[in-house]
Amino acid sequence: MDGLGDKFVTFAVSLAVGLLVGLERERHPLTKAGVRTFSLIALLGTLAALVADHLQSPWIIPAAAIAITVTLAGAYFVDSRTAADDSGTTTVTAALGVYLLGVIIFFGDWLLAVTLGVVMTTLLHLKPELQGISRRLTAQDTRSMLQFAILTAVVLPLLPNQNYGPYGVLNPFQMWLMVVLISGVSLAGYIAWRLTLEQGAHAWRANLLLTGLLGGLVSSTATTLVFARHAKTRTLSVAASLVVIVLANATMLVRVLLLTAVVAPKALAFVASSLVAAILLATPTLIVTWRRVGADTLRADEPYRNPTGLLVALAFSAGYGVVLLLSAWLSETLGKGALFGLATLAGLTDVDAITVSVLQLFRAGAVDGYATATAITLAVGANLVMKTLLVAFAGGAALGRSTASAFVGPLAGLAAGLAGFYTFA
Domain-by-domain residue ranges, the chain? Predict the structure, then answer.
């Protein structure tokens, strides 16, 4: 750090971080550290780093940290109102964190320190909301999050990031990264869906919308089948079930766009040309059906499987690898037509595997943007057709006819998108 002006700016940033966290802590009547204390602790962190740097004595930084921790912990211990529980644990931990933020600010990591300060303040402020969420999560929900952590933090770093096999398209790291991506999106939707179950009958309209949106993130196929059965058993009206089904499948289209943006951003414009039209043409039916819905109440049963189970992840990874190999082989030996046929067949059961497979081929230069968009569009179209048949089988003729009518718009949008970019290409 050079110059007196730089030093003043550095201490000003530390002061701002301390003030931010201290303002939040000041709200609690039993706290032993508020605005002034946290501001001083942040300044002390920067000062300790400055002195340690000048004297070439790095031990000063941990020594000051220990002194702060002991002082605050002692203040809570001697107070009879807080000595019997751990009510000061959060504040002591936050104080130590602010001290360390002051240290890293001295070493130039201002953006990181300010970002962490904001995150820390947000976590402290949202204590009631976080506790409520924690109480509403089940053991299965927690297990799902732990399994996702294993898939991401344990398995992924161990895999080699290089190509193997025929055509050089099998990359273990990239394949498992797709597993993490799909599982992460599904888990986020699953947990969010679980947190909406206790809203009660008064929130039935919000429940319908949230279930459709989140169901499309978790599994549009599972959502479609579950609510088809609800209509058949008269748990919900045909109109209410149709709203969830249409919304879940519209969300599936958005999900495909998000996967494209993450996996192969350069293909997004091609893929969006047909999927955006399908989403727009699904909207009128959704609005009309929504107006027909009565005061239905969602059942709080468990229609979704754990989206992060190891067997599910392994099955997806294996299926993804097989589709990737077949796609590469068909594209090279039989041309684009064979790839389109494979996409149509694969889309009858699952859109994710064929989508990420074709996107990987696009990234590798094996197919162009038009072929990529065509394959994905055909897979999505086949998936919607198959779901129409499933709804008619599982939900009855009335819901089947309504679903077929509702899907006419999205299917027309897909067809118009394909025709459009081939016409103007």
Answer: 4-125, 138-423
